[in-house]
Design a protein that fits this description.
This protein is 45% helix and 0% strand.
Length: 73
């Protein structure tokens, strides 16, 4: 989906590709298993979102996401 959106000019980001519990800075602080954050780190994609997105831009983003999801199936 990220590539499909990029090809349509929609920027995306993955802010936490490695769950916090697995990051280097937390190695000294072992935690219980974190299956939800591990799964989400592989599946969550951030879309453009801020108060200055006008309705036309919102519609373009939504359409691009719908098209990307449709092409993935």
């Amino acid at each position: 989906m990220q590539q499909a959106l990029k090809s349509k000019g929609i920027p995306t980001a993955i802010y936490y590709p490695i769950p916090l519990s697995a990051q280097k800075g937390y190695r000294e602080f072992p935690s219980a298993p974190t299956p939800v954050s591990e799964r989400l780190s592989k599946n969550v994609l951030s879309l453009p979102m801020h108060p200055y997105l006008d309705e036309a831009v919102q519609d373009r983003i939504v359409s691009a996401v719908i098209e990307s999801v449709g092409s993935a199936h």
